[in-house]
Amino acid sequence: MLWQTLNAAQAFTLSAGALIEVTDAEPVSASAIATAVTSAGYDVRRVSIPTGCADAAILTEGLTAQSADVRHWSSLAAARTARRQGGVTILLQPADVYSGLEGLSRTLRKEWPESVAFAWTLPRGGGPLVVQGLRRGYPDGELNQSGELSVAAPGKSLTPPSSLPGSTPSVWLVTGGARGVTAACAIELARQAGGTILLAGRSEVTPWPAGLPETGDIKILRGLLVERSRQSGARITPTEIDRTARNLLAGAEIRQTVASIHAAGATAAYIPLDAGDSAAVAAALSQAQEKWGGITGWVHGAGVLADKLAADKTEAELRRVFAPKVGGLMNILEAFDARQLRHIAFFSSAAAFFGNKGQSDYAMANALLASAGRLLARSAPDARVKVFHWGPWAGGMVDAALASHFEAQGIPLIPVDEGARIFVNELLGGRRDQVELVVGEAWATT
Ligand SMILES: NC(=O)c1ccc[n+]([C@@H]2O[C@H](COP(=O)([O-])OP(=O)(O)OC[C@H]3O[C@@H](n4cnc5c(N)ncnc54)[C@H](OP(=O)(O)O)[C@@H]3O)[C@@H](O)[C@H]2O)c1
Q1: In sequence order, what are the residues at sequence separation of 6 or more whose Cβ sits closer than 8 angstroms to the Cβ of residue 210?
Q2: Is residue 75 exposed (0-12), middle (13-18) or buried (19+ Cβ within 10 Å)?
Q3: What is the tens place of the pLDDT at every residue in 164-181?
Q4: Is residue 91 located within the same domain as residue 190?
């Protein structure tokens, strides 16, 4: 990922006298912005909710001291009412707080091609800087005190070193690491780095029922369970059959991951844990560190999807998506001191970097992980911090239907073995000054 500084851009133009609404969500900033923008010759109106009638709307919802899900949800809700043919929406967020509103602006530009949305990251007290952004028509990026804008470009993926530096035994926490593509990465990590790998996920390790043939195919398994319940005379609903089948497959996948890590020569333990539950995270991580020693590496791969267009998205859906990624991030950072970590890896998505239709919440949550990665790289300089903006993998949450959707768009899937190797090579041996990586074929034009 490359960063460059702009002092002219013209991603949009606003003529002098244009009507600009500034939301009052964060009143101190709103007031400073309104004064500066009025002095610059625009016609300013302060509003609690944008009317959708102005030439531009500047949204201060992202600058409030609210929790991450409230800030991001209220920004999305305000952007919905600001939406207007040809209108410009500017979403503001602070530079020193984990935020991911560029995930929203990038998604809205795909979902609402008739309007223009950009997210600007401001230094504390930097509200008046928006005048430079408006005059120069800045795209997404981080404004500095001189009014210049830093923007990120995906760049070329670096070739990882062929031999990795020797590493001391580590205790790894891998949230979401017992299943899906993060499990493949945890197994490759075990091969290359060894140590103790603590896998955390919500699923229980449900034992496989005696006498039931083993299968990894959910359709076959449902059929076997139906047959079994018929034979036993038990009346089980299709919903219960489906739930049982999913639990059995989850348990089998977890056992398989643990066994593969052991086979690779490392130690593995599974911790049933909802990363979004702060009390459970604090208790589980304190017990784990007592038993296994201080955690020295953290891979955050927990995530769920709840795809829906921004116009229809509900707050409950956004909260569901934020809970494992953003709630999990905050809960884990509260449970131990990040300065004890030598390695930090966050699983983000190319959706954070390019936006993706139907994924405004997911893109924001992942963009927030990236902002956390950038800030942690500064506050924990001894750690190698890597944020992987993955394109779609041939596994995990990409099921057969999604895989054919990507293939129809000409987007190749990341083979699981290859993705896992890229992950480990970058985490153990990649350049320390390259925090973010976009991995996989870019889908910028889709
Ligand atoms: N697959 C892809 O193409 C792709 C592309 C871009 C980014 N990613 C990112 O890579 C990560 C893994 O994705 P995947 O495709 O492997 O998805 P997946 O197969 O659905 O796996 C998600 C993992 O997250 C865990 N998880 C979900 N909610 C959790 C919670 N509240 N607490 C603890 N663990 C939780 C799941 O375990 P339980 O269900 O047992 O909790 C599972 O291990 C995600 O962060 C995703 O955003 C994936």
Answers
A1: none
A2: buried
A3: 455 556 999 999 999 999
A4: no
Last residue of a domain, one of 118, 153, 188: 153
- 158 pLDDT more than 60: no
Give residue 250's identity as a one-letter amino acid code: A
In this prediction, residue 2 carries a pLDDT of 76
127 shares its domain with 243: no
In this structure, the residues whose C-beta lies within 6 A of any atom of ligand 1 are: 175-176, 178-182, 200-203, 250, 273-276, 301-304, 323-324, 328, 347, 349, 390, 392-393, 396-398
Look up the CATH number of the domain holding residue 17. Answer: 3.40.50.11460
**Which atom of ligand 1 is found nearest the CA of 327?**
31
- List, for residues 364-384, the tens digit of each pLDDT value: 999 999 999 999 999 988 899
Counted residue by residue, the chain has a size of 446
Residue 228's Cβ-count burial label (10 Å; 0-12, 13-18, 19+) is middle
Give just the sign of the alpha carbon dihedral 75, 374, 392, 89.
positive
Residue 199 tokens read as: 């896998």
- Reported confidence tier of residue 163, pLDDT bands at 50, 70, 90: very low
Q: Does the global pTM surpass 0.90? A: yes
DSSP 63: G
Beta bridge partners of 119: 91
Domain count for the chain: 2
Ligand 1 atom closest to 302 (CA): 24
- Residue 262's Cα: distance from chain center in Å? 29
Q: Is there a contact between 92 and 57 (Cβ–Cβ < 8 Å)? A: no
CB contact set of 440 (below 8 Å; sequence gap of 6+)? 350, 390, 391, 392, 393, 411, 412, 413, 414, 419
Strand extents, DSSP E, 138-177: 141-143, 149-153, 171-175
